[in-house]
Every structure is written in structure tokens, then in C-alpha cells.
Amino acid sequence: MKNAHDILLRPMVTEKSLKAREAQNKYSFEVDPRANKIEIRNAVEKLFDLTDKVLTVQTVNVAGKFKRRGRRGGYRSDWKKAIVTLVKGATIPIFEEG
């Protein structure tokens, strides 16, 4: 089994993710592109001590954008995003810190 720290790469803190967290208790993470929903669920439960509090896991494969620097252009890397929904009343402490 993969290490939980290798699956969850970083939390996503954007305006859209903050609104989803406040309204629907959904948290967003950048995850390893090879990770599946079960591995993501287990990693969130293990790292944040949320046993049986994860309701759903949704994943999105995001294609890298074309970017230019002067005359030269290239593509950013493809990456994967996971949106984790928790039961009502459960929170993840790293998102609550100011």
C-alpha cells in the first residue's frame, strides 16, 4: 500500500474550494495521479484521524495548460484533484488555521 503522504500532495485553498467547504463540507486536495478513490479516502482518514467520517470522494484529472515565455511555449504538467465530502460536523484542522 502507498504511504498516505505520497497520495495527498497538498491541500487546495482557492475561493471556490473555500465556498464549497463552508456550504457543503467539501475539501479539495491535489493528489497523486495514480491514486484511486479508495486510496484517497484511506489517506484522508489516516492523516487527519477521521475514521468513518468521509462520505464521498470525487476525482478530476486536470489537463496541463499551454503557457508561453516570450517566443517559446510549453505545457504545464497534468495533475489530479480530489474533492472529499465529510459528514456534517467533521472538519480538517489544516483548513481551519488562519
Could you walk me through the main structural features you see in this protein, from its secondary elements to its overall organization?
The mean pLDDT is 93. Strand 4 and strand 5 form a beta hairpin. The longest helix has 12 residues, at 37-48. The chain has one domain (4-87): RRM (RNA recognition motif) domain (Alpha-Beta Plaits), CATH 3.30.70.330. It has helices spanning 4-7, 15-24, 37-48, 93-96; strands spanning 8-11, 26-31, 54-62, 66-69, 72-75, 79-86. It is globular and about 50 Å long. It starts with a helix and ends with a helix. The strands form two sheets. Strands 1-2-6-3 form a four-stranded antiparallel sheet. It has four helices and six strands. It is an alpha+beta fold and 98 residues long.
What is the top-level CATH class? Alpha Beta
Strand line-up across the major sheet: 1-2-6-3
| CATH homologous superfamily classification | RRM (RNA recognition motif) domain
Shape by Cα distribution: globular
Structural class: alpha+beta
CA(first)-CA(last) distance? 33 Å
Number of domains as seen in the coordinates: 1
Fraction of residues in H or I helices:
25-40%
Beta strand %: 35-45%
CATH architecture: 2-Layer Sandwich
| CATH fold title | Alpha-Beta Plaits
Spell out the key features of this protein:
two-stranded antiparallel sheet, 98 residues, Alpha-Beta Plaits, alpha+beta, 36% strand
Task: Tell me briefly what this model is.
With 98 residues, the protein is an alpha+beta fold. It has 4 helices and 6 strands.
